[in-house]
Design goal:
single chain, 1233 residues, mainly alpha, 60 helices, globular, Ryanodine_IP3_receptor, membrane, ARM-type_fold, RyR/IP3R Homology associated domain-containing protein, transmembrane
């Protein structure tokens, strides 16, 4: 290499130019160097992984020392408290801060000792490599730079997923998986020969065995699942299933692949059983999974089947059921139509999408979509229903191929599930598909197996017995005295009596059979007692009992409609004598009216009375026989509820009923429902689970302490009391020095002018442009590339965010101050420096990507770039819209709004269904006679038991994963024990005999409290009101939180962005959001946003109030200075919704500050609607004035004046329904104009 002094002047100039720019350009000479440097970066990537693993090993060693010292009662150092749930890493007390500094010192020493790179020199090399004009060099260098400055946070992320193995079995599984996975990974994307198929099959079988408990495939092995997932098994499974293989060539060339795909789907289902985190990861790959063509039946089973394989993506997962796209539902219906009898399991998959398992609630959107696509493909999707009766009879009597029967049964079950929830339109469709005559023919057919009748009885209940439409139109009004209905009741009465006798003879078999229902299309062998008993048991419990309960209520409803005139007189009667009794009339009409007006005519219909009495007596015998063996709460409730209603409607002796129910309560198995194998394994792994819980807690607490507190002072080292970022919000940024130092890499700190200071940020935008090109070409991106894109946008956002955080909290009230003006100008210059690199063209296309995380970052970045109405950025956005004529942004905004609308409506519907269930349970409680109040206690007891089962199911093995502090020392234990012995002994009464439980083994059981509670439920007399309150509380627990509002479509961020786009009355963007005349399809975003208020205005609470405030602020920006937008907003009935909010009074559990902010936003919207004069403008103002609730305005003004007179008005007083503020007065003045 020549010395610099040996070059001539011109040569030196050329060398300098080459070093500064020429070597980065694309050329043949540079290509070899680029490839060599790229390979060197691959090595660097490997070394970074090695460094991360070194740090993880050091971190585990620290935990090991702390844990061992805790066990030995030795001082464990400053980090020992981090192992326990009680430690608070967010504590800012002085004493806590001192301890956190010591912890931070230890963690930094650990990271420094395990570091193998010099950060500064490596950074300068990587920044230099990012200047090459090769896309792969830019991407790779920025990716490694991101990993370099994320190595510490990556270590913590890995630690949270890591497993510490304590038992010999776990260590053995780890070694076996470690040995097998390299082979599986190598073969995952290959077309295999026979030998490779055999090898891969053996590996898949071995891994599948690890995923469940020994000899019990239905019981997941929690520890082994986590070991395999932490090894990356799930990604290998997806790689195998993502292979593109032509189904037509399977028989000719790829016969072995059918076996591999079946085994892979089975393994995938086992890996995800009872694991919602993995289910949601697989949901993101749903399109890939639905493209599997080789084994459609096994795919459908893997995606939903409970007994054969697993709840993989949708069962018991409300989130994924709500998020599923309409095109995905359509694809599943098309797969069912195409494969028909070859894969009837697709219909069961659709049923799981329609009804949330566990919550037992239907999703109306999914119901409508499934029915829509079935009707569109009726000839294929419902081919069995399109055949003549003779053919259908052959199918139902099992005289054709089994696949047709399986498809028929599952199709009717799916249609019945779609009709649940009283949907009038779907009911009318179902009534045309299966008329009542057809159903009664099937229900009374002697040669059709009882198990096959279940979906048809369910169809009858939901389509005809519980209709939302007119009873006369459906033909259900004639069912009351229909001979075929009473023939079916007679038939089932006979079956119930026979079944009760069979249960008494085969008690042991009954207990086993009740644990698992038969296959939907199972046909019993008449000669096989076990088969007959199995099918009959579930037919009675899951079809007949709900039918009987529904038909009694149905008959009551008929009589209420027939005697409507009598009901009116009855209401007047109540009103004249006791106005308060009107409150209870709705409950009264279903109880008293039935007893007053419904009595079967003994002369005309004597057989009905006889059937009712026989049925009640038979059901009591059935209850007595099955009581000791029932473990399913739904079956228990069906037996008690139906029996109670039926006995109260018949002439049977109430005393015998009380005896039966009391015996039923005493014999109910409400103890531990875990299988012996599961319980034994949980005990075996208890210490390992507890140790892993401590390590997880240790990792989380250490990572929180390491990144520091969420303040501007702690993160940016700038004196301010403001929060740095909103934790848990859509605009959250990473915390910690790593992220701050990474941001500094893209800032020239020695430059003063923003344009030069932030010039390196251009590299981040180049990377986003490279990714946008790949997206346009439909090239699939890797997870690491998605992470890099997200980090690029976070850094760009942080560059502006850091300057915005330097403003005081209330800066918008001090905009005239010189210091604030200077900082706002500086923020604008930072925004413009980023905007100068064509940021809109490089960032906006990413909003159309499927990844929610990327879409969120795009929205957040655009929002911060438009902070304080930056005209240059607004101009750039408008120019982009006009030049590209792309609909991507508007379509994405509309889709996000649609996602949020669907989510809110569905959760509201689910909550309404849940409340209806609670109300129905209360009505059932209220309808019981006092003499049979035992039914109340039985139902309450079952409800408590069901709640406990739900808790166990939700927690599973995680119930043992608790990081608790060690108990106090033995001396204090002895003292506590003595005082306990002296002071009190636990005494309860069981069956009237006092018992001292202080020495009972029951108290040592972890479930002791539950068992005592259950015993108290049976033995203690509870007031009716208390019973009702307890039942409501138990039904609400664990359900209401799941149905609360969540910002699913990032709608608050979308609305914030729309507001900032129009901020400062930018007329061009205001108009373009309303109409895009240069596009093929125009989206009225103004109208869509105004219409969204219709979705949220009626349910404002502490969770939704921020959304409503942001929505009103956005509407305010739309209307300010734009007459056309005012007209659109007014036409969408916004003022009517505002009236509703003003009249509603106090908001439920909303902070007073938020309520005040809401009213200020309302006032601002109305001022924007009426603030201008003119021919058209005054007309809108007059219409607003006429529509607005004047009384509400007067109340606001009056209270505002009264508060103004007081010396120190309380905020709560201002916020009463009458409260208003200055804007209310301004609104009054404008109205008077």
């Amino acid at each position: 290499m020549k010395n610099a002094n040996s070059y001539s002047k011109d040569s030196q100039k050329a060398v300098t130019q080459y070093r500064s720019t020429g070597r980065f350009e694309q050329s043949r000479e540079n290509e070899a160097v680029v490839n060599a440097k790229y390979q060197a970066m691959e090595v660097l990537d490997f070394l970074l992984t090695f460094q991360r693993n070194l740090r993880l090993k050091a971190f585990v060693t620290k935990f090991k020392i702390c844990e061992q010292n805790a066990v030995r009662r030795k001082p464990g150092g400053v980090m020992e408290p981090l192992m326990y749930e009680t430690y608070n890493p967010h504590d800012r007390a002085k004493k806590a801060m001192r301890k956190q500094k010591n912890i931070l010192k230890e963690v930094k020493e650990m990271f420094n000792s395990s570091s193998i790179f010099d950060i500064e020199s490596t950074t300068s090399v990587l920044m230099d490599l990012s200047d090459y004009k090769y896309d792969k060099m830019v991407t790779k260098s920025l990716d490694i730079l991101n990993k370099l400055y994320s190595s510490q946070s990556d270590m913590f992320r890995l630690a949270k997923e890591a497993q510490i193995l304590l038992t010999h079995d776990s260590a053995r599984v780890h070694r076996e998986v470690q040995r097998s996975l390299p082979v599986l990974r190598r073969l995952a994307k290959q077309k295999l020969n026979d030998q490779q198929v055999l090898l891969m099959s053996e590996i898949l079988d071995e891994l599948a065995e690890f995923c469940h408990l020994p000899k019990t495939p239905e019981e997941p092995h929690f520890m082994n699942q986590n070991i395999m997932i932490s090894h990356g098994t799930l990604q290998i499974v997806l790689d195998i299933l993502s292979q593109e293989i032509d189904a037509k060539l399977v028989e000719q060339q790829y016969q072995g692949m059918t076996t591999i795909f079946k085994k892979t789907l089975y393994l995938m289902s086992l890996l995800t059983r009872e694991n919602t985190t993995v289910q949601e990861r697989l949901f993101d790959q749903l399109d890939t999974l639905l493209s599997v063509q080789i084994v459609p039946s096994h795919l459908a089973i893997a995606l939903q089947e409970k007994d054969k394989v697993t709840y993989i993506v949708f069962i018991a997962n409300q989130t994924t059921c709500l998020k599923v796209h309409s095109k995905q539902i359509q694809k599943i219906v098309m797969l069912a139509s195409r494969h028909q009898s070859e894969a009837p399991e697709f219909l069961e998959l659709l049923k799981v999408l329609v009804k949330v398992e566990g919550l037992d609630l239907t999703i109306k959107r999914n119901q409508a979509l499934v029915m829509k696509y079935i009707m569109q493909n009726f000839k294929k999707a419902a081919y069995v229903l399109d055949q003549p009766r003779e053919e259908r009879e052959k199918i139902l009597t099992n005289k054709t191929e089994p696949g047709h029967l399986a498809y028929f049964i599952r199709l009717v079950d799916l249609l019945a599930t779609c009709a649940e929830g009283e949907n009038k339109f779907i009911e009318s469709l179902c009534q045309t598909i299966l008329p009542v005559e057809e159903l009664l023919w099937i229900m009374n057919h002697e040669n059709i197996d009882s198990n096959l009748k279940k979906p048809f009885v369910k169809f009858m209940v939901w389509v005809y017995m519980k209709p939302a439409g007119n009873l006369a139109e459906s033909g259900a009004a004639d069912l009351q005295h229909d001979k075929r209905v009473w023939d079916f009741i007679s038939l089932t009465t006979h079956a119930i009596n026979q079944l009760a006798d069979a249960i008494l003879r085969h008690a042991e078999r009954t207990s086993t059979l009740l644990k698992k229902p038969p296959d939907p299309s199972f046909v019993s062998d008449p000669e096989n007692v076990k088969d007959v008993l199995h099918g009959s048991l579930f037919f009675i419990l899951e079809a007949v009992l709900p039918f009987l309960e529904a038909i009694i209520v149905f008959f009551k409803l008929l009589f209420l409609k027939i005697n409507y005139a009598i009901m009116i007189y009855l209401k007047r009667f109540f009103y004249m004598f006791n106005y308060a009794a009107m409150i209870y009339f709705k409950d009264f009409e279903f109880r008293v009216f039935y007893t007053l007006f419904y009595s079967a005519d003994k002369d005309l219909y004597p057989i009905e009375i006889e059937h009712t009495d026989t049925l009640a007596n038979g059901l009591m015998l059935f209850c007595e026989a099955t009581g000791p063996y029932l473990t399913n709460p739904a079956h228990m409730k069906a037996v008690v509820g139906t029996l109670t209603i039926l006995v109260s409607s018949s002439s049977s002796q109430k005393g015998s009923f009380v005896g039966v129910v009391e015996k039923f309560c005493q014999e109910m198995k409400i103890g531990d429902t875990k299988s012996a194998v599961r319980k034994g394994n949980m005990e075996y792994y208890a210490n390992e689970l507890e140790l892993n819980a401590k390590f997880l807690t240790f990792s989380i607490n250490t990572s929180v302490v390491h990144v520091g507190h969420n303040t501007v002072q702690a993160q940016m080292k700038y004196r301010s009391k403001r929060e740095y970022t909103g934790i848990g919000t859509n605009e959250e940024l990473p915390l910690g020095d790593e992220f701050q130092n990474l941001c500094k890499c893209f800032i020239n700190s020695h430059e003063k002018k923003p344009a030069k200071k932030y010039a390196p940020a251009k590299k981040l935008l180049e990377q986003l442009e490279i990714s946008a090109k790949l997206v346009r070409k439909a090239v699939s991106t890797t997870p690491s590339q998605q992470e890099l894109d997200i980090k690029c946008m976070q850094i760009l956002r942080a560059l502006v965010h850091h300057e915005e955080r330097k403003l005081p909290e209330d800066w918008d009230t001090m905009t005239s101050e010189a210091k604030i003006k200077k900082q706002l100008q500086h923020i604008k210059e930072v925004q413009n420096s980023i905007n100068s690199h064509d940021f809109v063209n490089k960032v906006l296309p990413h909003i159309a990507r499927r990844s929610d995380a990327i879409a969120r970052e795009v929205l957040g970045f655009l929002s911060i770039m438009l902070f304080n109405a930056n005209r240059d950025v607004q101009k750039a956005m408008l120019e982009y819209f006009l030049s590209t004529r792309e609909e991507v942004f508007f379509m994405a905004v509309r889709d996000r709004m649609q996602i949020s609308t669907n989510s809110i409506k569905e959760k509201r519907s689910l909550l309404a269904q849940h409340q209806a269930r609670v109300k129905e349970a209360m009505m059932n409680l209220g309808s019981f006679q006092t003499s049979i109040s035992t039914g109340k206690k039985a139902l309450q007891m079952i409800q408590a038991y069901e709640l406990r089962l739900k808790r166990e199911k939700m927690q599973g093995w995680r119930a043992l994963s608790r990081a608790k502090e060690p108990t106090v020392d033995s001396k204090s234990k002895k003292k506590r024990k003595k005082s306990f012995d002296k002071k009190s002994k636990k005494v309860i009464q069981s069956n009237g005999v006092s018992r001292d439980l202080s020495n009972e083994a029951l108290l040592k059981s972890p479930d002791a409290n539950d068992i005592i509670h259950e015993m108290e439920l049976v033995d203690v007399n509870v007031e009716d009101e208390k019973v009702a309150e307890d039942m409501i509380a138990s039904m609400d627990e664990g359900v209401v939180d799941m149905l609360e509002y969540k910002d699913d479509g990032y709608i608050e961020l979308v609305l914030k962005l729309l507001a900032r786009i129009c901020d400062g009355q930018h007329e061009g963007l205001q108009n373009y959001l309303r109409e895009q005349p240069d596009n093929i399809k125009s989206f009225n975003i103004i109208g869509e946003t105004a219409q969204f208020l219709n979705v949220v205005y009626a349910t404002i609470n502490h969770r939704t109030i921020d959304l409503v405030i942001q929505l009103l602020d956005t509407l305010n920006e739309f209307c300010s200075g734009n007459q056309e937008n005012r007209v659109v907003v007014y036409d969408k009935k916004v003022v009517d919704y505002i009236n509703f909010i003003l009249r509603a009074g106090e908001m439920i559990d909303c902070p007073p500050e938020k309520v005040l902010e809401l009213r200020q936003s309302i006032a601002a919207v109305i001022i924007s609607l009426i603030e201008e004069n003119g021919p058209g403008k005054s007309q809108v103002a007059k219409e607003v004035k006429d529509t607005l609730d004047k009384e509400a305005i007067y109340r606001c003004m009056t209270t505002c004046y009264e508060m103004h007179q007081a010396e120190k008005p309380k905020l709560e007083d201002v916020l009463k329904p009458e409260g208003g503020g200055y804007l209310q007065s301004a609104r009054r003045d404008r109205r008077m104009d």
